[in-house]
Amino acid sequence: MNELLWWFGRSSGLVAYVALWSTMFFGVMLGSRGGGGLLHSPTLLALHRAWSFSAVAITGAHVLAVVLSPGSPIPAVAALVPFASPSLTGAVALGTLASWTLLLLVGTSLARSHVPAWVWGAVHALSAGGFVLALAHGVFAGPDTASPWVRGTYVVTVSVFVSAVAHRLALASASRTASSPPSSTRRRDFV
Fold first, then answer.
1. What span, in angstroms and rounded, lies between the C-alpha atoms of 145 and 26?
2. How far is residue 103's CA from residue 55's CA, in Å, rounded to a whole number?
3. Is 85:93 a contact under the CB 8 Å cutoff?
4. What is the distance between the alpha carbons of residues 62 and 40, in angstroms, rounded to a whole number?
5. How many CB atoms lie under 10 A from the CB of residue 7?
6. Residue 134: is it exposed, middle or buried by C-beta count within 10 angstroms (0-12/13-18/19+)?
7. What pLDDT is attached to residue 180?
8. Fewer Cβ close by (within 10 Å): the C or N end of the chain?
9. What is the pTM of this model?
C-alpha cells in the first residue's frame, strides 16, 4: 500500500501538470477568439473550465499522496507554506506557489461576477507564471524528470504553449493593424 501511494503521488503530479497545461492551452485559444475563428469558443470555454477544475482536483490528490506517503520527506505544512520543506526546499516551494496561483485563479473565476474585471484580468495574467512554477516544480522535484518520455512531455507541452501564445499575439497584432487607418489617410492638423 505504501508503494502504491508513492507511485500515485508521482503519477498524479505529471497528470496535474498536463491538466494545468490543458487549462492554459484552452485559455490562450479562448483569449484569441478561438484561435482566430478556427475553433468553437463555447467549446473552448467548456474545455478550459473542465481542465481548470481537473487541475485543482488532481493537484490536491498529488499533494495528499506525497504528504501522506509513509517515509515521504515532505511535511504537510510544506503543502501550504512555501520553503517549509526540509527536503527539496526550493523545488517543493515552487509547487506550493504554483498551487496557490491555481487556487487564486479558480477562486477569482468562481467569483467573477463579484470582482472588478481588472482584478480578474490581473489574476489571470498570473497564470503564465503559475504554469512556469509548476513546470519548474516538476523538473526539479519530479523523480522521473530524467526519463525521456517525461522530458519529452515537458518539451512538447512548452512548445505547443509557446506556439499558442505566439499565435494569440500575432492575431492581436494583426487586429490592431487592421483597425488603425494607414498613415497617409490620417488627418494632420498644422497650426
1. 25
2. 10
3. yes
4. 32
5. 12
6. buried
7. 62
8. C
9. 0.86
